[in-house]
Amino acid sequence: MLHYLHLNPEPFETIKIGEKTIEMRLYDEKRRKIKKGDVIEFQNRLNGEKIKAVVMNLYIFKSFEELYSKVDKAKLGYKKDDKASPNDMEQYYSKSDIEKYGAVGIEIKLLKDVTVANLVDAGICPTCFDRENNCCLYGNNKDKMLYENDKFECFLVGKPRAIGHIVISSKAHYKDMMEIPDDLCEEIFVFAKKTMKAIKKTYGSESVYLCTMCDGLMNHFHIQLIPRYDYEKRGSKNFVKERKDYIEDKEKIRQLRLILQK
Ligand SMILES: [Zn+2]
């Protein structure tokens, strides 16, 4: 979800250069909609300049006093010699509103600096984040997409372990196979069977291996289909074949789509 916040020029600049990493706000209805992994577009009140940042964490307090006592003042945008006081917030919000709603510290990271590792460390699923933010992490893979519906998608892997290495991934976030509902599990695995046959036919592989080994909270459920060709030995080493560069084969993509979209 995208949120919009306005800023005075000084805090805007300190956010832009990455010094200020926690934005303080009244925790009212509008800010209660902000969730970890959302994107905030900050706009400079003076010149209209905009910058996007990702919400990495939220710190919720009863008051700004509590927030100031627990959060590093440099992260709030104060310089070393500045006197940081919760009363500074009273120029923005009334005492009664502060009492009613409390305060929130929104920890942010500039969108341009966000990496997959940052997101995982913050407890944000990179796959979901990428899909919600125009493929900003992994790039657009529409050219590799073979089949898509509202529940799952099936695409060629960008750095494949074999030519024709395909992934099927759920649209909604499930951390592994144990989490997916039975009907979706059934649908994906029946589709995987169809895809394995399509790989074998299209690429002339001898067999196709299937694995799913999502591990960790921030993994996003997917299954992998890896072809084994006649010049390769049978066995589990096929699951860890060295990744190679993806070479686009438009004719094979056309054939696969024809089979899978039927
Ligand atoms: Zn996810």
Molecular structure report:
This protein is an alpha+beta fold and 262 residues long. The chain folds into 2 domains: 2-132, Hypothetical protein (Archaeosine Trna-guanine Transglycosylase, Chain: A, domain 4, Roll), CATH 2.30.130.30; 142-260, HIT-like (HIT family, subunit A, 2-Layer Sandwich), CATH 3.30.428.10. Helices cover 27% and strands 24% of the residues. It is built from 8 helices and 10 strands. The protein has helices at residues 9-16, 29-32, 64-70, 95-101, 116-121, 126-132, 182-203, 250-260, and strands spanning 2-7, 22-26, 39-44, 50-61, 103-110, 145-148, 152-156, 166-170, 207-211, 222-228. The strands form 2 sheets. Strands 1-3-4-5-2 form a 5-stranded mixed beta sheet. A 5-stranded antiparallel beta sheet has the order 6-7-8-10-9. Helix 7 (182-203) crosses helix 8. The longest helix has 22 residues, at 182-203. The protein starts with a strand and ends with a helix. The mean pLDDT is 95. The site of zinc ion has 5 residues, from helix 6. Zinc ion (ZN) is lined by residues 125, 127-128, 173, 220.
